[in-house]
Design goal:
alpha/beta, Rossmann fold, 2 domains, globular, 6-stranded parallel sheet, 13 strands, 16 helices
Length: 397
């Protein structure tokens, strides 16, 4: 669609009044297509719209998730912005979509902000992985193309944090990272901790799985530990596979189940795992209803990541009543507190020893389960959205 055609019939404000402000949210990541970022975007959008009965909202979506977002209020408009993430059109075309809506404020839930954004905005920065943990293994591009793309990523991130009215960070660790990296005044950065979608009852029923790949129904009758999340290089799953293969020598019945939607990184990891063990299971995407069963019957949740900005996956495992053994890097001790057993992910012997100890010690696992469940209660999407809304209001004043 041409820019000229798009602007031929600009829409009037929804309910513009003296106090009413018009706020835009970039929700192109909304829902499952955005993975962890999609969860954050969905929770923020859904809860803020529920809380705020005063202002108007324009929610920008792609074709893939346009119907996933449901709204029935006259204060909310769905706007189709079928523009790819991180592409040139995001920088050149998206500002015109924003300009057309006559916004008072725009919220970008990720760093990919158009450099020439035409309205004042805030940005959420979840982490600085692209700067702190650069690796060509995190892309399907060639080395030269990756370097060029990473160079432009850094320009976009730098522009976003310097031009934004406020920056939302998912942890104090990320806030400190931003201050050190970009020399930003700390008052510009607001920490809004993410939330846990649902707490499972202390003794939940464990319904049978409906099926799925990998024969999970038969596998969960045997002991296993679990990882749920993506397979990006900084997650250190290759290290976990190597450690598991050593543990498996003394515990031949033990399984490792790695849950995540099939993509380039999981396909590559599956090939890597074949050289180490046939007891590593890749079920692909597992719906939430069946994921509860995997959590309920697992011995442990293991999180070996080198770098995180918040660390939602182990927190969600705690919310499901599962003992967590985690990396001690970056924000994880801040978020998980005293509710996890920690290891150094750079030391595979330490990782192995901490996992084996937790597998062998039922009392330790019970203690971790109890503390983890209480830790998860501290994090609420309602609180995250309410704090985000307060930032909107302060800027709009």
């Amino acid at each position: 669609m041409s820019i000229k055609k798009y602007f031929k019939s600009p829409l009037p404000p929804l309910l513009k009044g003296a106090k009413t402000k018009r706020i835009g949210i970039d929700a192109r990541f909304y829902g499952p297509i955005g993975k962890g970022l999609g969860r954050y975007t969905q929770e923020i959008v859904d809860n803020i719209i529920k809380f705020d009965q005063e202002n108007e909202y324009v929610v920008f979506l792609r074709k893939e998730n346009f119907n996933d977002f449901k709204c029935d209020g006259i204060r909310v408009k769905k706007a189709l912005a079928n523009i790819r993430w991180y592409g040139l059109s995001e920088q050149i075309i998206f500002p015109f979509y924003i300009l057309r809506e006559r916004l008072d404020l725009m919220h970008f839930p990720h760093f990919n902000v158009p450099i020439f954004c035409p309205v004042k905005f805030i940005v959420t920065v979840h982490d600085l992985i692209l700067i702190k943990f650069p690796t060509s293994r995190a892309t399907t591009l060639g080395p030269l193309a990756y370097k060029i793309k990473n160079f432009f990523y850094k320009i976009v991130i730098s522009s976003a944090v310097k031009l934004s009215r406020r920056i939302l960070a998912g942890s104090q660790f990320t806030k400190n990272d931003l201050i050190k990296q970009f020399k930003i005044n700390q008052d510009k950065i607001i920490v809004t901790y993410e939330g846990v979608a649902e707490l499972t009852p202390a003794n939940p029923p464990t319904p049978l799985l409906k099926g799925g790949e990998g024969g999970l129904n038969s596998l969960i009758s045997q002991p296993y530990f679990l990882y749920v999340g993506n397979a990006y290089p900084h997650k250190n799953l290759e290290g976990l596979i190597r450690v598991f293969s050593e543990i498996n020598k003394n515990s031949p019945d033990l399984k490792l189940i790695l849950v995540g939607k099939e993509d380039y990184f999981y396909s590559r990891l599956k090939k890597y795992a074949k050289d180490f063990s046939d007891k590593i299971i890749f079920p692909g995407y597992v719906p939430d209803s069946e994921l509860k069963t995997l959590y309920a019957k697992a011995r442990l949740y293991v999180f070996p990541s080198f770098y995180e900005g918040f660390g939602l996956p182990p927190l969600e495992a705690m919310a499901h009543g599962l003992a967590v053994v985690s990396s001690n890097k970056t924000c994880l001790p801040e978020i998980l507190g005293q509710a996890a057993a920690y290891f150094n992910p750079d030391d595979e012997t330490d990782m192995k020893n901490k996992i084996e100890r937790a597998l062998a010690d039922e009392k330790l696992r019970e203690d971790l389960r109890s503390r983890g469940y209480e830790q998860a209660k501290k994090y609420s999407w309602n609180n995250c959205a309410a704090e985000t809304l307060e930032v909107y209001k302060k800027i709009l004043k």
